[in-house]
Amino acid sequence: METKAALRTLSALAQETRLAIYRYLVEAGPAGAFAGTVAEALGVPSTTLSFHFKELSNADLVEGQQQGTYIRYTAKLDTIQAVVGYLTETCCGGNPEMCAPVAVPLPMPAVKRKASRQQ
Amino acid sequence: METKAALRTLSALAQETRLAIYRYLVEAGPAGAFAGTVAEALGVPSTTLSFHFKELSNADLVEGQQQGTYIRYTAKLDTIQAVVGYLTETCCGGNPEMCAPVAVPLPMPAVKRKASRQQ
DNA sequence: CCGTTGATTCCAGAATACTCGAAATATGGA
DNA sequence: TCCATATTTCGAGTATTCTGGAATCAACGG
How many CB atoms lie within 10 A of CB A80? Predict the structure, then answer.
């Protein structure tokens, strides 16, 4: 993931309504939820919700599948992992073992590199 | 971490300059970097940079330590982890084991009922 | 004290994002 | 076909955020 995509993803989640939508879909699990259901659950007008769904889709955070008249939205959890990977990939100049406190819930690419000095 | 804090953190990172600052500090590792060094490296006016440092501090993403005339900033990596935890804590209604196969195409139960959107 | 340098605050203009009503589009049933 | 429902697009008003110059504050050396 490169900077532009990461920025899109972070921007998408950095908004109250969209964060609520995303969390709702995460909680819903692989089955997801219909757009109308989310609108009703969160008390957001459908027109506003549509705007936010679009943002989340562009950020690759959710996916919509047409099912008859309805659209079923699901959260794409792996995008979050990608963002975390992006944020930590340059960690300590490529020596993530120095960044102990961060435990990414995914197997991290074991990048081995020479230690560099700074001070 | 609760919603407000998560929103603050995500908003802080969802900005080009701040994301660059944060990544710069992540790469710098525990030693961090001086404010002026970051300003020069990223080509950002000190007044603008100060504004963004403040945002990042409020979001608990960086920490500044006065050292003589200079201020040394370091990235607080564990905050990222807290956000990820927040985003996934409600995963599948509290059954995270269901979230494992993210890429699996979900089975689509035929929804043919009129006013029923549940499942 | 001064003068210098690093960093922040103040402020206003510019740019961007959010909201939601009305209208348009899409789908399926009668 | 016509109708009902779900969702999106359009558009304009509102709100928020970003930027950077000028002024200010803080720390040091002389």
Answer: 22
pTM: 0.84
Q: pLDDT 10s per residue in chain A (119 long)?
A: 899 999 999 999 999 999 999 999 999 999 999 999 999 999 999 999 999 999 999 999 999 999 999 999 999 999 998 999 999 888 888 877 776 544 443 332 222 232 333 33
Residue with tokens 């705007």: A51
φ/ψ (deg, to 5) at A63: -140, 135
- Residues in B closer than 8 angstroms to A7, CB to CB, are 14-16, 19
Q: What residue of B is the nearest CA neighbor of A80?
A: B84
How long is the CA B50 to C1' C9 vector, in angstroms?
Answer: 10
Which amino acid is present at B99?
Answer: C
**Which long-range contacts does A45-53 make (Cβ < 8 Å, 24+ apart)?**
A48/A17, A49/A17, A49/A21, A52/A15, A52/A17, A52/A18, A52/A21, A53/A21
Q: What are phi and psi of A98, to 5 degrees?
A: -75, -20
HSE of B6 in the Cβ direction (CA atoms, 13 Å)?
A: 22
CATH number of A3-78: 1.10.10.10
